[in-house]
TrEMBL record:
It comes from Mariniradius sediminis. This is DUF1080 domain-containing protein. Residues 79-229 form the 3-keto-alpha-glucoside-1,2-lyase/3-keto-2-hydroxy-glucal hydratase domain.
Length: 246
């Protein structure tokens, strides 16, 4: 009986581990504090993820402390991304009913993620305000943050608008995001535009290399496809110059 019980326990643990991993085309993803599945959406197979509020609860009275956390799908075959290109097609929908009045379709990319999720860099967008008729709102369409010390609200206080910007993004449409990472610099290109929409001229994290991940936050249903990651050597280039076609 004891051996039978241990066997059942081991089988249950194996199921839990398997449930946290997804095979999508030729890539394997590990789910960190998100729920996910491979679904058919608009005629294509995509990876759908949502933040798991049971794993990391959200508190509307402590917004910065409970957002921009390690809730993402980790690409498992690359643990040493340092410099290069990350490109992905992503589609953001709002959950209905909304779990929080301030949801904006938060969706984007993590990079240089440490194995234990203790540190990483990120650029994400808020598609709900990307085409707002209020310029101040548009200026919050893109966000950089560096986990754990420099999340969005901290950056707004110490360096207003330096780590945020505008971009031509919207809810319920496919957005191609390409991030060019080079040393302490990261540039974001949207929808194959020749020039970047956003640049981080000096990233703030101490993490120099690590995993890449796909991120969503509170109230977002995120769909992802066509993820491409290319490692490159450190290079010096003119800000805003397009350096590759994928």
């Amino acid at each position: 009986m004891k051996g039978y019980t241990i066997g059942l326990l081991l089988a249950w643990i194996a199921l839990v581990v398997d449930a946290q991993q997804l095979q999508f085309k030729n890539k394997e993803f590990e789910l960190h504090n998100v729920t996910g599945e491979v679904v058919r959406f608009q005629g294509k197979k995509v990876l759908r993820i949502e933040r798991d509020l049971n794993a990391i609860p959200f508190d509307s009275t402590r917004v910065e402390a409970t957002v921009d956390e390690p809730h993402y799908a980790r690409l498992m075959d690359l643990d040493d991304f340092e410099n290069g290109t990350i490109e992905v097609k992503m589609y953001s929908q709002l959950q209905d009913p909304a779990p929080y009045s301030g949801i904006a379709g938060f969706i984007g990319v993590f990079f240089r993620v440490q194995k234990d999720d203790s540190a990483f860099e990120s650029i994400y967008v808020r598609p709900k305000v990307g085409k707002s008729d209020n310029q101040r709102h548009r200026n919050h369409a893109v966000q950089y943050f560096s986990y754990p010390h420099y999340k969005f609200d901290t950056l707004r206080k110490i360096a207003p608008f330096r780590y945020e910007g505008s971009a031509p993004v919207a809810l319920n449409e496919w957005i191609t995001m390409r991030i060019e990472v080079d040393g302490e610099t990261a540039e974001m290109f949207i929808n194959d535009m020749r020039y970047s929409s956003f640049i981080v001229d000096k990233m703030l994290g101490t993490s120099k290399k690590g995993y890449v991940g796909l991120y969503v936050d509170i109230g977002t249903i995120g769909y992802f496809r066509d993820l491409k990651v290319t490692k490159k050597a450190l290079q010096v280039r003119k800000a805003g110059e397009k350096v590759s076609d994928i």
